[in-house]
Amino acid sequence: MIEISNLKKSFKDICVLHDINLRVDDGEFCVLLGASGSGKSTILKILSSLESFDSGSIKFDNSEFKNQIPSSKDRQIIMQHYSLMPWLNAEDNIKFALKCSGIKDKNKLENISKKYLSLVGLGNISKKYPHSLSGGQCQRVAIARALALDPQVLFLDEPFSALDPVVRANLQNELKDLTKNKQVIFVTHDIDEAILLGDKIVVLHNGKIIKEIKNPKFTPNTPKYFELKSVIYKLINGEVDNIEYMI
Ligand code: ADP
Ligand code: MG
Fold first, then answer.
1. Residue 179, ligand 1, Cβ within 6 A
2. Which of 31, 51, 64, 205 is the most exposed place for a label (fewest CB within 10 A)?
3. Confidence grade of residue 151 (pLDDT, cut at 50, 70, 90)
């Protein structure tokens, strides 16, 4: 379980996160949704040890942290631009991450990297370098690399925003399957993506959580779906600061 309480963060004297309170249960897929600049990436960076915070507390299961979270192999982040090592092929990108996490045995490295590349449908391109892979394939390698470390918690920061719609739709569906039983915090500014993926959608505006919507499951392109979408649209654009929306 992840529990964020009264989290505050400023850059110089500008407050970018105001009293964030958020809980993500085991196995829950939580989507952080908000316009550009609303504070989504800052929350993920704090949770994945890339940024400190000013006050409040963050708990992962029974460990509580203040100011800075130590890095751990149990928490992995996937960024928008997949951050693969360009000088390593797909398989070696995964092996490198595994080595950094302490795995030394050659057979183990081989087996784990093969297993996760196959899992994301890339068993046949394991020797290719990032520059010769498509954006969608690079993002799959990044997902395979993160999953290979078997983290309990996965953070994803707009991982599909650079991909074309068909590749994106395929990866969205695969990601849901691949992350069953993990805690996921997925950041997006895309309302459809949030509704499709989220067990819970947390709407951010100007560094504040203004709404949580649980189980937003509706068939796309139905009247109810459009109604929900328009409610969320108003929230992320700050046209209203809370709507009592019953689902
Ligand atoms: P989002 O991911 O929702 O687009 P961010 O978390 O990246 O938003 O940014 C939230 C706010 O914090 C923005 O106003 C941004 O300019 C500011 N910000 C983010 N990182 C820094 C930084 N390292 N230094 C100064 N301001 C920052
Ligand atoms: Mg961002």
1. no
2. 64
3. very high
